[in-house]
Amino acid sequence: MKSGNHIFSNRQRGAVLIVSLLMLLVMTLIGVTSMSTTALEEKMAGNNRQRQLAFQSASSALRFAETWMQTNITNITQFQTQFSGTPVELYWTRAPKTGQTPRAIPMDVYDESTWTVGNSQEPNVSMISGTQRDPRYAIEYMGRIGEAPLDWTRPDDRKYAFRITSIGWGSDDITNYVAQSTLRMQLY
Question: Smallest Cα–Cα separation from 165: which of 121, 133, 129, 102?
Protein backbone atom coordinates (compact mmCIF):
# COMPACT_ATOMS: atom_id res chain seq x y z
CA MET A 1 0.00 0.00 0.00
CA LYS A 2 2.76 2.38 0.77
CA SER A 3 4.25 2.03 -2.69
CA GLY A 4 0.91 2.85 -4.33
CA ASN A 5 0.42 6.04 -2.32
CA HIS A 6 3.94 7.14 -3.16
CA ILE A 7 3.28 6.94 -6.92
CA PHE A 8 -0.01 8.84 -6.57
CA SER A 9 1.63 11.69 -4.61
CA ASN A 10 4.35 12.06 -7.29
CA ARG A 11 1.66 12.50 -9.90
CA GLN A 12 0.00 15.19 -7.78
CA ARG A 13 3.21 17.20 -7.58
CA GLY A 14 3.45 17.29 -11.37
CA ALA A 15 -0.21 18.29 -11.67
CA VAL A 16 0.27 21.16 -9.21
CA LEU A 17 3.16 22.47 -11.30
CA ILE A 18 1.08 22.39 -14.50
CA VAL A 19 -1.93 24.00 -12.82
CA SER A 20 0.33 26.69 -11.31
CA LEU A 21 1.89 27.45 -14.69
CA LEU A 22 -1.57 27.71 -16.29
CA MET A 23 -2.74 30.05 -13.51
CA LEU A 24 0.39 32.16 -13.97
CA LEU A 25 -0.28 32.32 -17.73
CA VAL A 26 -3.90 33.40 -17.16
CA MET A 27 -2.82 36.05 -14.63
CA THR A 28 -0.21 37.37 -17.08
CA LEU A 29 -2.82 37.61 -19.86
CA ILE A 30 -5.21 39.46 -17.53
CA GLY A 31 -2.42 41.88 -16.53
CA VAL A 32 -1.37 42.59 -20.11
CA THR A 33 -4.99 43.08 -21.20
CA SER A 34 -5.70 45.46 -18.34
CA MET A 35 -2.58 47.48 -19.15
CA SER A 36 -3.60 47.71 -22.80
CA THR A 37 -7.09 48.79 -21.79
CA THR A 38 -5.69 51.41 -19.41
CA ALA A 39 -3.39 52.80 -22.11
CA LEU A 40 -6.30 52.98 -24.58
CA GLU A 41 -8.53 54.70 -22.02
CA GLU A 42 -5.77 57.21 -21.32
CA LYS A 43 -5.50 58.03 -25.04
CA MET A 44 -9.28 58.37 -25.26
CA ALA A 45 -9.33 60.74 -22.28
CA GLY A 46 -6.55 62.83 -23.85
CA ASN A 47 -8.38 63.01 -27.18
CA ASN A 48 -11.59 63.98 -25.40
CA ARG A 49 -9.74 66.77 -23.58
CA GLN A 50 -8.34 68.06 -26.89
CA ARG A 51 -11.80 68.01 -28.46
CA GLN A 52 -13.32 69.82 -25.49
CA LEU A 53 -10.64 72.54 -25.64
CA ALA A 54 -11.23 73.00 -29.37
CA PHE A 55 -15.01 73.09 -28.82
CA GLN A 56 -14.72 75.67 -26.04
CA SER A 57 -12.36 77.77 -28.15
CA ALA A 58 -14.69 77.74 -31.17
CA SER A 59 -17.73 78.44 -29.00
CA SER A 60 -16.06 81.40 -27.33
CA ALA A 61 -15.18 82.90 -30.72
CA LEU A 62 -18.76 82.36 -31.85
CA ARG A 63 -20.15 84.16 -28.79
CA PHE A 64 -17.60 86.96 -29.24
CA ALA A 65 -18.71 87.48 -32.86
CA GLU A 66 -22.41 87.42 -31.89
CA THR A 67 -21.81 90.00 -29.15
CA TRP A 68 -19.74 92.11 -31.54
CA MET A 69 -22.58 92.05 -34.09
CA GLN A 70 -25.22 93.02 -31.54
CA THR A 71 -23.01 95.84 -30.22
CA ASN A 72 -21.62 97.26 -33.49
CA ILE A 73 -24.38 96.61 -36.03
CA THR A 74 -27.42 98.38 -34.63
CA ASN A 75 -28.66 100.23 -37.71
CA ILE A 76 -28.62 99.98 -41.49
CA THR A 77 -25.79 102.52 -41.88
CA GLN A 78 -23.47 100.49 -39.66
CA PHE A 79 -24.47 97.35 -41.53
CA GLN A 80 -23.66 98.88 -44.92
CA THR A 81 -20.33 100.22 -43.64
CA GLN A 82 -19.19 96.91 -42.14
CA PHE A 83 -20.38 94.69 -44.99
CA SER A 84 -18.90 96.80 -47.79
CA GLY A 85 -15.80 94.66 -48.36
CA THR A 86 -13.60 96.55 -45.86
CA PRO A 87 -11.78 94.95 -44.14
CA VAL A 88 -11.26 92.91 -47.25
CA GLU A 89 -13.12 89.62 -47.22
CA LEU A 90 -13.89 89.54 -43.51
CA TYR A 91 -17.62 90.05 -43.63
CA TRP A 92 -19.18 88.19 -46.51
CA THR A 93 -22.37 88.93 -48.34
CA ARG A 94 -24.27 85.82 -49.41
CA ALA A 95 -27.29 87.68 -50.79
CA PRO A 96 -26.07 90.16 -53.41
CA LYS A 97 -27.13 93.73 -53.80
CA THR A 98 -28.66 94.63 -57.13
CA GLY A 99 -26.07 94.29 -59.89
CA GLN A 100 -23.52 92.46 -57.72
CA THR A 101 -22.51 88.82 -57.54
CA PRO A 102 -22.64 86.92 -54.25
CA ARG A 103 -19.46 86.87 -52.20
CA ALA A 104 -19.66 83.64 -50.23
CA ILE A 105 -16.79 82.60 -47.99
CA PRO A 106 -14.21 81.27 -50.50
CA MET A 107 -12.87 78.50 -48.31
CA ASP A 108 -13.61 75.07 -46.99
CA VAL A 109 -14.46 75.93 -43.38
CA TYR A 110 -13.64 72.37 -42.29
CA ASP A 111 -10.07 72.59 -43.61
CA GLU A 112 -8.06 74.26 -40.84
CA SER A 113 -5.34 75.43 -43.22
CA THR A 114 -7.76 77.71 -45.11
CA TRP A 115 -8.49 79.92 -42.09
CA THR A 116 -6.19 82.91 -42.64
CA VAL A 117 -5.94 86.61 -41.89
CA GLY A 118 -7.51 87.44 -45.27
CA ASN A 119 -10.77 85.55 -44.73
CA SER A 120 -11.40 85.46 -40.98
CA GLN A 121 -10.81 87.38 -37.79
CA GLU A 122 -9.39 86.52 -34.37
CA PRO A 123 -11.31 87.79 -31.36
CA ASN A 124 -9.38 90.66 -29.79
CA VAL A 125 -9.62 89.17 -26.30
CA SER A 126 -7.99 86.09 -24.83
CA MET A 127 -10.36 83.18 -25.17
CA ILE A 128 -9.30 79.80 -23.81
CA SER A 129 -5.97 79.19 -22.11
CA GLY A 130 -4.01 76.09 -23.01
CA THR A 131 -4.63 76.15 -26.76
CA GLN A 132 -1.87 76.49 -29.33
CA ARG A 133 -3.77 78.82 -31.68
CA ASP A 134 -6.37 81.50 -31.17
CA PRO A 135 -9.80 80.79 -32.61
CA ARG A 136 -11.03 82.53 -35.75
CA TYR A 137 -14.46 83.55 -37.04
CA ALA A 138 -16.12 84.79 -40.21
CA ILE A 139 -19.52 86.46 -40.59
CA GLU A 140 -21.81 86.14 -43.62
CA TYR A 141 -24.83 88.27 -44.41
CA MET A 142 -27.48 85.82 -45.60
CA GLY A 143 -30.23 88.24 -46.60
CA ARG A 144 -33.56 89.38 -45.21
CA ILE A 145 -35.96 86.93 -43.61
CA GLY A 146 -39.43 86.60 -45.05
CA GLU A 147 -41.31 88.17 -47.91
CA ALA A 148 -41.12 91.88 -48.64
CA PRO A 149 -44.35 93.75 -47.92
CA LEU A 150 -46.64 94.02 -50.93
CA ASP A 151 -47.80 97.45 -49.91
CA TRP A 152 -44.93 99.82 -50.71
CA THR A 153 -46.30 102.42 -48.32
CA ARG A 154 -45.60 100.12 -45.35
CA PRO A 155 -42.03 99.93 -43.98
CA ASP A 156 -40.00 96.81 -44.66
CA ASP A 157 -39.52 95.46 -41.14
CA ARG A 158 -37.98 92.11 -42.07
CA LYS A 159 -35.03 91.01 -39.98
CA TYR A 160 -31.50 90.66 -41.32
CA ALA A 161 -29.94 87.18 -41.13
CA PHE A 162 -26.27 86.45 -40.53
CA ARG A 163 -24.32 83.21 -40.28
CA ILE A 164 -21.27 83.15 -38.04
CA THR A 165 -18.73 80.36 -38.48
CA SER A 166 -15.83 79.82 -36.10
CA ILE A 167 -12.99 77.37 -35.63
CA GLY A 168 -11.06 76.53 -32.48
CA TRP A 169 -8.01 74.36 -31.85
CA GLY A 170 -6.95 72.14 -28.96
CA SER A 171 -3.62 72.30 -27.19
CA ASP A 172 -2.08 69.83 -29.65
CA ASP A 173 -2.73 72.13 -32.67
CA ILE A 174 -4.12 69.11 -34.52
CA THR A 175 -7.60 68.82 -33.08
CA ASN A 176 -10.03 71.45 -34.32
CA TYR A 177 -13.74 72.13 -34.00
CA VAL A 178 -15.96 74.16 -36.33
CA ALA A 179 -19.09 75.78 -34.94
CA GLN A 180 -21.81 77.83 -36.63
CA SER A 181 -24.69 79.95 -35.45
CA THR A 182 -27.27 82.12 -37.11
CA LEU A 183 -28.24 85.53 -35.89
CA ARG A 184 -31.37 87.51 -36.76
CA MET A 185 -31.32 91.22 -36.17
CA GLN A 186 -33.81 94.01 -36.63
CA LEU A 187 -32.03 97.02 -38.16
CA TYR A 188 -33.58 100.42 -38.76
Answer: 121
